[in-house]
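Can't attach files on this board, so I'm pasting raw text. These are the components:
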Amino acid sequence: MKRPEPLEIFQPASVEEASAIVKEKGPGGRFLAGGTDLIIAIKEKGLAPKYVVDLKRVPNLSGIREEADGSLTIRALTTMREVEISPLIRKRFPFLAQSAAEVGSIQIRNRATVGGNMANATPSADVAPSLLVLEARAKIASAGGERVLSLEEFFHGPGQTAMLPEEILTAIVIPPTHPKLVGEYIKFSPREMMDLAYVGVAIALVLNGKEKRCESVRIALGAVSPTPMRARKAEAVIEKQIFTEELAEKAGEEAAKECKPISDVRSSAEYRRAMVGTMTKRALLNAAAQRPGPVPWVERRERRY
Amino acid sequence: MEQLTIVGKPVTRVDAEEKVTGEAVYGYDLVLPDMLYGKALFSPKPHARIKRINTEEAKQYPGVVAVITGKDAPWTHGESIKDKPFLAQDKVRYIGEPVAAVAAMDEDTAQAAVRLIEVEYEDLPAYFSPEEACKPGAIPIHENFASYRKFDFIVPGSMPNVCEHFKLRTGDVEKGFREADLVLEERYYVPVIQHAAIEPHSSHAQVDPESGRVTIWVANDAPFRALHEISEALGLSQEKIRFINPLQGGGFGSKGGLKVETIAVALAYHTKGKPVRVKFNREETFISTLTRHEAVIHIKSGVKQDGTLAARQMTLYWGAGAYAEKSPTVCIRGSLPAPGPYRIPHVRVDGYAAYTNKPVAGSFRGYGIPQGAWACEQHMDEIAKKLRMDPVELRLKNIFVDGDLAYWGEQLHSVGLKETLIKATQAIEWGKPPGFPASQLGGEEARRLKPNIKIGKGFACISKPTRTPTTSKAGVLVNSKGEITVLAGTVEIGQGCSTILSQVAAEELKVPLDKVRMAPLDTDMIPFDASTTSSRSTYHMGNAVRRAAIDAREKLMEMARPMLEAKNEELACSNGKVYLKDQPQMALPIGDVVRRKLGNDGIVRGDASYTYEIGKDLDLETGHSDHASAFYMYATQAAEVAVDEETGRVRILRMSAAHDVGKAINPLNCAAQIEGGLAMGIGSALHEEMVIDSQGKVRNPSFLDYHLVTSLDLPEMIPIIVECPEPEGPYGAKGLGEPGLAPTPAAIGNAVADAIGVRICDLPLNPERVYWAIQQKRAKGSSRWLTEVA
Ligand SMILES: Cc1cc2nc3c(=O)[nH]c(=O)nc-3n(C[C@H](O)[C@H](O)[C@H](O)COP(=O)(O)OP(=O)(O)OC[C@H]3O[C@@H](n4cnc5c(N)ncnc54)[C@H](O)[C@@H]3O)c2cc1C
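---
Top answer:
C-alpha cells for the assembled complex are below.
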C-alpha cells in the first residue's frame, strides 16, 4: 500500500468545467457538495477517491424557484435546511419540507444538499420518497449537454444512479401539480431524531368532493428496497375509490407485500414489512385529513392520524 | 450543627465556564512536543493461535519509527487477575484485541503501516455466551489461568472459564420454598452495552531512556490504581512512574484500569525517549476498550400469600469477555445485593463471572446493580401480579428499613429507601388512572384517535454498595493572598467533583467559593486516592478534604492567636477571616495570617487521610460481612410510558427518580447527576445493545447504529432528593454517581408490562422486540414471553 497522498481537490467555476475535469482525470473521482456523506465515507469507510471536484464554487447551482407553468425547480446544491424552511415549499408541499427536516440535525441540514441526498442514492434517503410521489425529474448535465430523467429512472441501486461519472445532477424539477394535492411523509425510526429511516413512507393525494373520492394517489417507500420505490399496487387499491380507513389499511397491506426489505443490524425484514403496512396506512390517513396549504409542524408524523 | 454557608447550596459548577467555552483541554486534545503517533492492529479472530506475524514491510514504510508485537512487550497486567497482555501473546481471545502497534510521524502513516502487518492465525473454538463458556467440557480460553496472580479473595471454582464464583448462603432456600404459598421462577437477560463516553480513549506515554522513568498522560479515572498496575506489570518501582491526568470527557467506568495506556507504553519503549500518543477512534473504542457485562439471570422466589418474601435463589452468569478486568468484583458486588433491598430469610446466590470470546467487560456505572435490578424488580412485579397485590404494597411489606439485618449479615442504618419509594411513585401519581399531559400525545384530537396507544406505570427500587474499604488522602494549601488550593486525587470525569470538593474546602475555611481552586492531577504531587469510582468520592474524598481543610484552619488559628492577642479566647473563621468569637471586630484575613507568619511566599498546608475501617472481611463461603460497604445508596425510580401497539415503540411520558443521597452538598449537581443517570438508563432500557454476531464481531460499532438517546427521546424528568444522613459521611453525605441509571430499565420494563400485559425479559425494549412480544401475545394468548408459575 502506498503512503496516503494528500487529496487533490478542484474547484471549477462552471458545470462544463467540472465535467471536463472528470473526463480528463478519468474515473475514480468524486463530486463534493455538502460532504456529509462523502467526507464520512472517506474518513471512516475507507473510500479513497482519486480526486475531488468541489461543486460549491459553481454559480447558480442552488436555490428554489417556481416557474411560470407552476413547476418547481430545486437546484442540486440547495441545502436541506433551505428546503425545510422555504415558504414556497412549506406552502405547496409541506410534506417535502417535513422530509428535509427529518434529516440528521440542524447542523447537518445546513450542509447536506438535496442533490447529494439523491446522488448518494441510499435506499433510506429521506427526501427521495417525497420527491418520488411528486413525480420529480432529475436534471443532469455534463460538458456534452443536458438530459432529464424521472427520479424513478435515476435510482439504480444502493449508491448507484443513472449518471455517468462526468455527469452532474444540477436540479430536481417538480412538475405542475393539482391545486388540491395534499401529502405526507413519515419517517419511522426508533429514535426521535438523528436516526436513519427504518421505513419511510410518502403520500401525495388528491381527493375530490365531500365523499372524498380519490382522484389520484401516489405512494413511495424508503429503506425497504434497493432504491426508494413507488408502491404502485398499493396505489391501485385506492385510486378512484372513495377514501376510507379500511381502504388505507388495505393499501398498507399491499405496500407491505410489494416492498423488498432486507434484514440488517437495524431490524429484520419482517418487522420492516409490518411497519410499511402500518406507516402507509397512517400516512394515508394523515394526508387525507389535511387541507392544501402549509401544515403546522406539530410532532412526529407517525404519531398523528 | 454549625450553620452551613456553601455546602448544601446549588452553586454553579466551578468548571462550567471553561467547559462551555471549549477552553478545557481533555486527554484526547493533548499535543506534546515531538510527539509520535501510534496505531494498533486489532485481531479479526475471536479465538485463534497466532502462528506468525510479519512486520518487515511495515518497518520499511517511510515515516515509521517502531513496529512492535507481543514479543516486544512481554508484559501482562490486570487488577484482580493478571491475565491480560499489553499486546496479544501467542493467541488472540476476541475480535478487537490489539496484536501489534506502530509508532510513526503522523497518524495516517501509522495506520498505513499497520495495514502492512501480516498475521497468520489458526482458529480455535470460541464462546459467545457466559452460560456456554462454563459448561462442562468447554475448552479454556485461558490455559494458564491457574498460574495467574490473583486477588486473594478470588474463588474461581471448578467450572471451565469461570474466573470468579461468588456464593451467598443465608438460611435454607429449599425450606423457604416449601413454606411458601407461591413459587415463581424466571430468566432474564441483559445484553452487552458500552459506556459511550463522548471522548473516546487515548493515552500518551514517554519513557526516559536514561532514568527509565515512565510518564503517562491519560484521562484515567483511577491514576493511582493504574500506576500500581503498570508498576506491577513492568516490574518497575512506583517512583519511576508518573501519571498526569488531563480532563476526562466522560468515562462511566470505561476509563479505569489500563486500556490504550498499555499500547502507548509498549510503543514508548521503542521511540528513543519521544512521547507517543495512541488515540482510539469510535470504532476502536467500541471493539477494543471496555463493555458492560451481559448477564443471564435465573431468579426463583418463594412468597407467602400476604406478600412476605420467604426465600430467593439467584444464579447470575456474568459475561466477562476475553479478560478478567474487574469481572470478579463486578460479580461479587453485583451478585451480593441482586436479590434486592428486601428482608428475605432464606437466600442463595451463585454468581459466575465467565470468560467469553467477546470484547472485555468491566466496570460500568452501577457496577452490576442494573443487571440484578432488571431481573429482581420485574420479578417482584410478577409476584405482585400473581398475588393480585399492588406492587408498592408488596415492596413495603419487605423493603429494608433502619435496623434491618440484611441477608448478607449486616445491620443497616440510614436507610432512606422507603421515602424514595413513596416519593417516586407519588410523583407519577401511582394508583391514579393513567394521566398524561395532552401535549405529550399531540392534543385532544390525537388522544381521541389512539386506541393503539397503551399507557402503563412502573417503578423499581435498588440499593447499591460502594467499594470498601478504601482510602482517600488530601491536602489543602492556603497562600498569603488567602487563596486555597485543594490537592485531591479525585478525577473530574464530568461528575462535578471539583465543585463539590471546592465547596467542602470553602465551607471549612469559610472563604468564598471563587477563592478555591483544584490542583491539576499529577501522581508526583497529589496525595493518594483509591479511585474515582463506585460513587465513593463525595464520601471518602469529601471526608479527606474536609479534614485537611480543618487541619489548615486549625494551623491558621494557632498562627493568628498571637496576632490577635488572644489568650484563652476562642477563635473562629468566617468570610475569609479569623476572628475572636467574643470580639468579632478583632479579625484578620487568613491571607494576612499566612503572610505575617511566613512571608509573601508562605503557604499553610493542611493534610488528612480518610479510610473507612471495615468490620469483618467478606466470608468466602457464605458471602457474609458485617460491613460490606462504607454506605449504601438507595433509590426508587418510576415511569409512565406510552406503548404504540402497532409499532412496538415505547415512549416515556414522565419519569421520577428519588435518590437517598444522605446530604446534597450541591442540590443542583445532584439533580444533574440524577437526570444524566436517567438519560443513560433510558438509553439502556430502550435502545442500547452492542450487537455481536455468531462470529464474535461487533456489528454496530458506531453511533449510527448504537443508539444513545437524544434530548428529544427524554421525557419530563422529576429528580427527587431524599436526605437520610449517613453519620460517617461529610455533612451526612453518601454517594450518587452510579445509582441514577440502576433502576431505570427495570422501572420502564415494569411500566411496559403494565401497559401491554406482557412481560419482556430481555433488554433492550426496542420497538421491534416489543412489537413481536405484542404479536406473540395476540397469536397465542400465552407465549415464551409470559412467565409461568413454577
Ligand atoms: C450525522 C448525519 C446524519 C444524517 N442523517 C440523515 C438522515 O436522517 N436522512 C438522510 O437521508 N440522510 C442523512 N444523512 C446523510 C446525508 O446528510 C445526506 O444524504 C445529504 O443529503 C448528502 O448531501 P451532501 O451535500 O452532504 O452530499 P456529499 O457528501 O457532498 O455527496 C454525496 C455523494 O453524492 C455525490 N454528489 C453530490 N452532489 C452531487 C451532484 N450535484 N451531482 C453529482 N453527484 C453529486 C458525491 O460525489 C457523493 O458521492 C446524515 C449524515 C450525517 C453525517
